Amino acid sequence: MLSSAAVTLRSSRFAYFAPSARTMSLHVQDMIFRQLFDRETCTYTYLLADAKTKDAVLVDPVIELAERDANLVQELGLNLKYAMNTHMHADHITGSGLLKKLIPGCQSLIAKASGAMADVHVEHGDKVSFGNQTLEVRSTPGHTNGCCTYVSHDGKFALTGDALLIRGCGRTDFQEGSADTLYDSVHSQILSLPNEFSLYPAHDYKGQTVTTVAEEKVYNPRLTKPRETFVDIMNNLNLDYPKKIDVSLPANKVCGLYNLPEDLAAKLKDQ
User: Fold this and answer.
1) What are the pLDDT digits (tens) for 102-160?
2) Is 159 part of a structural domain of the chain?
3) Angle, vertex CA 85, rays to CA 84 and CA 88, nearest 5
4) Is 194 helix (H, G, I), strand (E, B) or coil?
5) Strand pairing of 127-130 and 157-161?
6) Residue 131 neighbours by CB distance under 10 Å
7) CATH code at position 152
8) Fewer beta carbons under 10 A from the terminal one: N or C of the chain?
9) Residues near 78 by beta carbon (within 8 Å), at least 6 away in sequence
10) 161 within 8 A of 152, measured Cβ to Cβ
11) Would you say 125 and 135 are in contact if contact means Cβ atoms under 8 Å apart?
């Protein structure tokens, strides 16, 4: 049981709303926050916007749902500056390239260490600004070399990609993975944040939407273990080979616009 003196599980600066099957809304410090969901890959896409200037960013878009995201941007009257990714995904094709076609002026953004093409490459310590809002880029490799976590210090939350999942973490058995590196990344760059910070992952397979630094420091069944135990756990997961990796990785190296399935390629020709 958590000590109330040691941790705070929820920040009073947040206003929470019950999530629907597809979206969850959150307003904090003049920020518009939408958590969108892809049922097929259990991917979360995050739309963040400055409520005053209407400048926005979209994090971890999925190509099949790019039109959904573009429509939401239009309905909210937002100016989408960046379609950005926490890393080069293996389980789905990014919607970054298609969003650039759907929303003129939008730029793609990803970590330089990912090796993927983008209009903007970021590195550890960089800032991504949209209106009066800022996300700090924290390099969190281990799942992939190019994994990064985006931290909103004003909003007291972080988008952790696959580095830290709710009660879990990203796998480390392919695509430059390293359990030892991931352990360092999560503890030094994510769990080092204040206990009340909310953490939003790139995926969840059990229907959970958000966690906190405090919760994961106590309840994460992998990352609460000593390093040696964590490495042993990660090296013996025996997970299946990702189903979409052979299609997703080549496409995601070029903003999701290469070697696409026939239906998606035909759709793009009509854009």
Assistant:
1) 999 999 999 999 999 999 999 999 999 999 999 999 999 999 999 999 999 999 999 99
2) yes
3) 140
4) coil
5) unpaired
6) 20
7) 3.60.15.10
8) N
9) 32, 47, 49, 54, 55, 56
10) no
11) no
